[in-house]
Specification:
FMN, two-stranded antiparallel sheet, eight-stranded parallel β-barrel, globular, DusB-like, EC 1.3.1.-, alpha/beta, tRNA binding, TIM Barrel, binds flavin mononucleotide
Amino acid sequence: MTVTDIPAPTDRLELPPLQLGNITIDTPVVLAPMAGITNTAFRRLCREYGGGLYVAEMVTSRALVERTPESLRIISHDDDEKVRSVQLYGVDPLTVGRAVRMLVEENRADHIDLNFGCPVAKVTRRGGGAALPWKTELFTSIVQTAVREASRGGLPLTVKMRKGIDEDHLTYLEAGKIARDSGVAAVALHGRTASQFYSGVADWSAIARLREALPDIPVLGNGDIWSAEDAIRMVRETGVDGVVIGRGCQGRPWLFGDLMAAFDGDAQRFRPGLKEVADTVYRHAQLLIETFGEEDKALRDIRKHMAWYFKGYVVGGELRAKLASVPTLEVLRGLLDQLDMASPYPGVDAEGPRGRAGTPKRTALPEGWLNSKDLNEDQRAGIAAAELDVSGG
Ligand SMILES: Cc1cc2nc3c(=O)[nH]c(=O)nc-3n(C[C@H](O)[C@H](O)[C@H](O)COP(=O)(O)O)c2cc1C
């Protein structure tokens, strides 16, 4: 892999390992849970480059307690994943508690994260995801139940959330304190509201405020880290104990190598030429075949990664289109072989924002949701349906 030096920052960042309960993460970096992305194949690619914690795709508590094959696939880990990290989504304390208990009793995880950041309309419309922390009693009950069940197995439980529903209905400070008081091992904040989706710029000042408000537990910062330099800057500007990386590593699993180097005060960065990218794409497809056990499904999955992998590289339009609809591993090999393998790292064109962006829109919520922090009877009945059919964050 091509590695280059960039000028090292003059004052070295001294950040201690991230401590989540009894788990020590030497490089304080977390791969953000991403539905449809952070499966065993992608986690393997990422962790081969660096240290950190690598969270699986979110799974709904209900699907898990019902043991659907897809939910069991999502929570599976490779044998060499030292910390088996699972993210649960749930709206009902009882079901969340049962899911955590199942993970603990069946020894299926070492760390559990709860998702309170999902902005997708079909989730928030039913009061789930980023809409949920607004209902403080329900939020408290879910987190307390999950912490209690997780602690029976000595597992650290963390929560991941957004700033709130919109700028007029922020929830993160109150939710952070509730989570802290409930005994979570850490809180991660994505510096956007639900109504922003992935648009605009993440508000790192909110992350700094949360860090200040919760001096007694680790706070992790999330949003718009596209490079190791961004990560260092976030730590300096907010004081967080670790960073959570989502879209920045899409098509760039080597970012975890850059992050480990940066946190070690090392100036080396991965700058892959086109051949190295092509090799990684091929390996990613092979690993996806192992993950899904079906070539067809794996190749369908790899298609969405193509634009990310080749962002900024010299690849013709026709070849790009073919890569984005590649049907088999054999065809993939043939297409990759057509690339100009001598083509070097393109520099800034391969860097910066990538992946989902979207436009801000009003968050869909259950009737009267914002009128009170408590649930009314209709809302209570409504959220029971909120776990059905959910994926993504
Ligand atoms: C494709 C995709 C899937 C996601 N799925 C989840 C998820 O399952 N659980 C979750 O908590 N967040 C999910 N997120 C949100 C990310 O974890 C992260 O908070 C967000 O992308 C902001 O970080 P970033 O700016 O580094 O991308 C997802 C984001 C993307 C782009």
